[in-house]
Specification:
40% of the residues lie in helices and 21% in strands. The chain is of the alpha/beta class and 228 residues long. The strands form three sheets. Strands 2-1-3-4-5 form a five-stranded parallel sheet, with helices on both faces. It has a four-stranded antiparallel sheet with strand order 6-7-8-9, covered by helices on one side. It has a two-stranded antiparallel ribbon with strand order 10-11. It starts with a strand and ends in a 5-residue tail after the last strand.
C-alpha cells in the first residue's frame, strides 16, 4: 500500500523537489504551502506521516505541530532552516518525532522518514509488558496507566519500550541511541533527556519525583522492575 505523506512547506520549489524525490521511492506526497492549509488537509484526509517546516507564513510550525499532535498520533518530521539546539528541543517537546535542519540531503530525509514510519508500524512482536498499573503494548504501540491511554510520540514509545524490555538494567545514552536506530544523535545531545522528560510527564504520578524511569547519575537511566 502506498504511504501518504503530507508536506507542509511554504517554499514551493523545495516542496516540488521533495515531492518528486519521495515519489520515486513510492510515496504519495500532498503539499500544503501554509500552516492553516496543512492543518485543514490533515483533518480532512488520512496521512501516514507529516513533513513540517518550522517557519511558515501564517502559523508558526511549532503551533501547527501542537494542534496536529493534539488530534492524533501523527508521525512528524520537522524541517527547519533554524539549526539552533533550542529550536530542536522545543520541537521535540511539542511532539515531533524527528528533526532535520536545512539544507539537507534528500537521502537523509528519506532515511529519517522511513525510520519514523517503521517505528509507527512496530517491528516488535505482539506483547504486553505489565508493571503494576502500567501496561506497554508492543504490538499496538500503546501505553496505558490505570487503563487510560498515555500519549507518546513514536520516538518516545520506542525509547520507553527499550527501557522496559531491559527493566532493572541501567542503560547509558549510548545504548539508548542504539535502540533508536537510524537517528544521528551524539552522546552529549540533550534530546534523549527531552524525550525522557516527556515520557515521565505521560507515565509518572509525579514527574518531578519519578519512580518508573529513574536517573542514575553519570550512568544513564533505569526502568524500575517493581512498580505499584
Amino acid at each position: 500500500m502506498t504511504e501518504r505523506i503530507l508536506l507542509i512547506e511554504d517554499d514551493k520549489r523545495l516542496a516540488e523537489m521533495v515531492k518528486s524525490y519521495l515519489g520515486e521511492f513510492g510515496f504519495s506526497v500532498t503539499a500544503a504551502h501554509s500552516g492553516g492549509a496543512g492543518i485543514a488537509l490533515y483533518r480532512r484526509e488520512s496521512f501516514d506521516a507529516l513533513i513540517l517546516d518550522l517557519m511558515l507564513p501564517d502559523i508558526d510550525g511549532l503551533e501547527v505541530c501542537r494542534q496536529i499532535r493534539a488530534d492524533a498520533q501523527a508521525r512528524i518530521l520537522m524541517l527547519t532552516a533554524r539549526g539552533d539546539a533550542m529550536d530542536r528541543v522545543v520541537g521535540l517537546e511539542m511532539g515531533a518525532d524527528d528533526y532535520l535542519a536545512k539544507p539537507f540531503e534528500p537521502r537523509e530525509l528519506l532515511a529519517r522518514l522511513r525510520a519514523i514510519l517503521r517505528r509507527a508500524k512496530g517491528d516488535h512482536k505482539s506483547e504486553v509488558l505489565r508493571f503494576g498499573r502500567l501496561d506497554i503494548d508492543a504490538g499496538a504501540r500503546q501505553v496505558r496507566l490505570d487503563g487510560a491511554p498515555c500519549t507518546l510520540t513514536g520516538y518516545q514509545f520506542t525509547l520507553l519500550l527499550g527501557l522496559a524490555q531491559h527493566a532493572g538494567r541501567v542503560m547509558s545514552r549510548e545504548v539508548l541511541m542504539d535502540i533508536l536506530k537510524n537517528e544521528r544523535l551524539e552522546a552529549f545531545d540533550r534530546s534523549i533527556d527531552v524525550h525522557i522528560s516527556r515520557i515521565r510527564a505521560a507515565i509518572e504520578d509525579d514527574p518531578k519525583k519519578p519512580r518508573r524511569v529513574i536517573t542514575v547519575r553519570g550512568a544513564g537511566y533505569v526502568f524500575a522492575k517493581a512498580q505499584e
